[in-house]
């Protein structure tokens, strides 16, 4: 039996997954008109209707959904086979990592990691998004979590559990000399990430029972909050790994003594990937690099 065009099948797989002709075109780097033509040709080739237009988007028909499930599995197999072939020819690593850690700890030492890999290529993607390992978006991810993830197809190993504490610039702290304990911190201009939740959790862990409504800017990324603290815009919550050098050089100071731990850094990769030399080497290297400062 003659198979349909692989290009048309690829367009159909992308349309079914994204639910959009335009999004599929952006992913495949072709125009929406070309995507539509591929879908029309595929439907004509098969003699069935796979896609129906609804509003501004598209939906799969019942036959289309059934066909798409099988096509999607086939493309997943192709992606995995290609990944294995590339890995055997040369060891490369695509690592997704939360931005702050990528900037402060990994970027300065990438040549060292490349040397350990034996000449392979390192792709470091700073992001808050999580990769889809089933699509080989990444070989491994480094993420900060309160609890280890539970996924039967993935294995997570803890890299570090750094202490978390409030920091500010020396100039800002000089303006608030009456700060003696964690309970005094809500008096200061606080800098948040995506919400006030992290500060609320930290204050409770530090023993503050009565927490007022917290105010302050939201900067979404931990490293942006730290940068804002360095230029005197307020107080940020930081962990020891991200501000080690800033504390040593006096750009930041720890405001009050505390012993609070909120989460850990984990290296996550598919179960079968942990038997590879590159992932085990990456884990050992990260444990060394992320060793908490004394």
From TrEMBL:
It comes from the Bacteria. Residues 4-61 form the HTH lysR-type domain. Gene3D superfamilies: Periplasmic binding protein-like II, Winged helix-like DNA-binding domain superfamily/Winged helix DNA-binding domain. Keywords: DNA-binding, Transcription, Transcription regulation. The keyword Transcription applies. PANTHER family: HTH-TYPE TRANSCRIPTIONAL REGULATOR (PTHR30537), TRANSCRIPTIONAL REGULATOR-RELATED (PTHR30537:SF79). Belongs to the LysR transcriptional regulatory family. This is LysR family transcriptional regulator.
């Amino acid at each position: 039996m003659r198979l349909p065009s692989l290009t048309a099948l690829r367009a159909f797989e992308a349309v079914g997954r994204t639910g959009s002709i335009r999004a599929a075109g952006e992913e495949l780097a072709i125009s929406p008109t070309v995507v539509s033509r591929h879908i029309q040709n595929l439907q004509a080739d098969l003699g069935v209707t796979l896609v129906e237009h609804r509003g501004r988007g598209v939906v799969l028909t019942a036959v289309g959904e059934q066909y798409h499930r099988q096509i999607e599995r086939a493309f997943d197999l192709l992606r995995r086979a290609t990944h294995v072939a590339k890995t055997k020819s040369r060891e490369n690593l695509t690592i997704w990592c939360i931005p702050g850690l990528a900037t402060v700890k990994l970027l300065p030492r990438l040549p060292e990691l490349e040397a350990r890999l034996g000449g392979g290529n390192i792709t470091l993607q700073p992001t808050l998004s999580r990769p889809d390992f089933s699509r080989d978006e990444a070989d491994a991810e480094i993420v900060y979590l309160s609890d280890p993830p539970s996924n039967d197809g993935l294995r997570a190993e803890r890299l570090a559990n750094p202490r978390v504490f409030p920091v500010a610039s020396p100039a800002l702290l000089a303006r608030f000399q009456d700060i003696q304990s964690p309970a005094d911190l809500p008096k200061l201009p606080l800098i948040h990430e995506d919400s006030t939740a992290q500060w609320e959790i930290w204050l409770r862990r530090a023993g503050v029972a009565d927490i007022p409504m917290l105010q302050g800017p939201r900067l979404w990324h931990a490293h942006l909050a730290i940068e804002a603290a360095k230029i005197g815009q307020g107080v940020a919550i930081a962990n020891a790994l991200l501000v080690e050098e800033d504390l040593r050089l006096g750009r930041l100071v720890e405001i009050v003594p505390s012993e609070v731990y909120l989460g850990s850094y984990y290296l996550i990769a598919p179960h079968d990937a942990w038997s590879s030399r590159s992932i085990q080497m990456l884990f050992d290297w990260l444990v060394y690099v992320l060793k908490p400062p004394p």
